[in-house]
């Protein structure tokens, strides 16, 4: 906003410099108009002054000649005045003739002195005068001290004519003129006007010099002004450019801080800033909820098709949000594959749920890339502004984070709205995670072993290793309480590797005709995500380390493993099968009921889930057909079978009669520590399953 305002203002530097430049240029134009005229006028003045000067000099010269030469000649018998004095040895020029001749010698093209008089002087006929000369004569006769000056063009050339009266200014002249026989009149008085002295000065050279001078002056001024103007303009341009660059950087920065560069939605900080304004506005009374979205599919997209695919998935998600949500919904990106949406409007839980359902519907559609479909795998955590009128966005975000974390950990729940219990659970999970990490480094895990029996003879066929975590109070924490936490953090890979090693070590010390079953988490098949060795590698190392033959190890997997139909998982299973270990499908019948994998995957055994056993006890008519169908399927597919959770002699008998192969359950034995296995083995040497004895030691499930 501020940047926009700054940009819409004319730049300060131009506002300062442009008037200066205009003043300088204006002054120059003014001078270039004024100076030539001023110099021309000055040239005219100079020409005038020079004319006056010359006229004065002429006057002085004649006066001097008259006083010092002519007077003496007038009295001399030897010398006489003559017009043609040049040809006569004792003749000298009359003063006027002298002046005319000197003037003719001094004069040139540029300035010429002229003597004009109506009197025929000397020895000549009356002189005819032009109309202009007559007028001049009349003027000067009336005003003898006047200087008459005018410009005139003769033969295309401009002249300045300056004229003064030629007066009788010496008594000697007056007496001479009055006494001379040739004089046209005898009543001359001192000061009488006897003619006109006129100088014609050619103006062109003066004007040319003035023009040249004015150009020189203008040139010098220009030479000073031009660099000044140019410097001002260059400085203004540089300052302007710098300012523009700075503003551009500021604009880019503000864009960067306000909007996510990849998607154009708000950044975390601007989302918080804007939603804070809404929340703190007391006049805003509608509902307010925060929804955090996690795109789980981005990681898969990156792995399978590279980061451009992941980036495109993120952009596609933003497009869906923009197109599918109400117009003014605020959308932000919290980095990576995380987005946040502010629900402005929905108030009640039901309304917020509808909003979330819409969000989920928008994101659920699979994303296509190069004809491949990649699920978006969206989890949503929401938090509603509570009745306490909570007005802190950060707190709501934190609550939404807890809801999101809970949604990610809760199977089947992709979207959850925060409630206080979630915070407690999350805190419990965090405490548990700390315990898990500690147990990993300090050896806090233990394995208990539950025997697996021949359904008919009750002989021990093998054991299933079941993990426990020893709590700080010495209490054993069951796997159902911590496995999901370990899976979420990836710690399950390290735990699983330890379990396999430990179970193999124990199995190697048990009778050679028994097997050891170890439970695997689907996360262990993605071990490389957590920079851990792959499961096949771990198994091979454990077998090598303990010397346990591969066929004695059974790995229990669950149907959840096939959820995302990952080729890498199948490849890993085939590798395990090649090693020679057997694979058992645990909790069979509870999962995602796709039986197809039983045909084409190397599964050797199915473990019928305990729920079928309790189901049979509670409602035999409903459970029996299913149990019989599954047993028939196992037989048809030549898969071994174990029934889990046998607790009563009736159940033991029913499943033995059904011919299901193997059984497992508290009726035979609870999971026991390693130290009790020898006793357990001895107890089942007989052919019939003994009733559960009170002295049996070992793990008593909290659920039991
Ligand atoms: P599961 O693989 O189905 O293991 C059998 C669970 O049923 C065990 O619980 C066992 O104590 C219990 N059980 C056995 N017979 C009976 C019975 O007659 N009645 C009743 N009510 N329960 C019976 P546990 O040891 O608490 O293990 C729970 C689950 O934890 C296991 O279910 C398995 O999914 C997981 N688990 C245990 N150990 C590991 C492990 O090392 N790694 C992994 N990934 N998961 C493990
Ligand atoms: Ca199991
Ligand atoms: Ca099971």
What does this structure look like?
With 704 residues, this protein is of the alpha/beta class. It has three domains: 13-208, PAS domain (Beta-Lactamase, 2-Layer Sandwich), CATH 3.30.450; 266-418, 2-Layer Sandwich (Alpha-Beta Plaits); 429-703, EAL domain (TIM Barrel, Alpha-Beta Barrel). Helix content is 51%, strand content 19%. The strands form five sheets. Strands 15-16-18-19-20-21-22-23 form an eight-stranded mixed beta barrel, surrounded by seven helices. The longest helix has 64 residues, at 12-75. The model is unreliable at 1-8 and 689-704 (pLDDT under 50). It binds ligand C2E and calcium ion (2 copies). Ligand C2E is lined by residues 450, 466-467, 478-480, 483, 499, 519-521, 556, 586-587, 610, 644-647, 665-666, 671, 701, 703-704.
